[in-house]
# Entry
Amino acid sequence: AQKVTQAQTEISVVEKEDVTLDCVYETRDTTYYLFWYKQPPSGELVFLIRRNSFDEQNEISGRYSWNFQKSTSSFNFTITASQVVDSAVYFCALSGSKAAGNKLTFGGGTRVLVKP
Amino acid sequence: EAGVTQFPSHSVIEKGQTVTLRCDPISGHDNLYWYRRVMGKEIKFLLHFVKESKQDESGMPNNRFLAERTGGTYSTLKVQPAELEDSGVYFCASSQGFYILAGKGDTQYFGPGTRLTVL
# Structure
């Protein structure tokens, strides 16, 4: 069975601080995909990134960066120089190989509060 | 391009009543998914359509839930009769599906959700 754990339920920072969200996953699939979604106060889930299990290259997109470590089954997300607009709930998710189906297994989410 | 839309945004009903949720996927997306988040819990998978066929309905909690996708376009999720524990946010997502076939994974795009409250 697949499992995603986001140990941090809530993080509060002051604007311009960096914040790192932890995500640890469990799967028996040899090929799998990891995702991060953002849920702003408006409620929709906004796709941020997809990472394939065979590609461990870290990625940076503006103030966002992701650190994929297969050896520790972690896919952490860092927001650099946080802004008030980054306040949201962030979800890490996992999907398996085609044979396992494409359904997403979500972590419990981490609420990020950025104070001005 | 329009995103995934869901209707209604909120629904408040009494226990024992029937509610129907609707999802319109992104145009051209063959895959449609339903998920829900019950208060304080993780977002959980309910089922997956490929066009009009149910590919995986392993997450459907019981037979009070009925999902349909007539003609492979929009989908409805009916709860009949609703119980208190059905309260939560129901999300719909869609994906193109091409990359699934190629074994390259796929990205699901979510709608804003329907908040269901059963009193």
User: Anything to note?
Assistant: The CA atoms of residues 32 and 94 of chain B lie 4 Å apart. The interface with chain A takes residues 31, 33, 35, 41-45, 48, 55-56, 59, 89, 91, 93, 95, 100-101, 103-113, 115 of chain B (CB under 8 Å). Chain B has a mean pLDDT of 91. The radius of gyration of chain B is 14 Å.
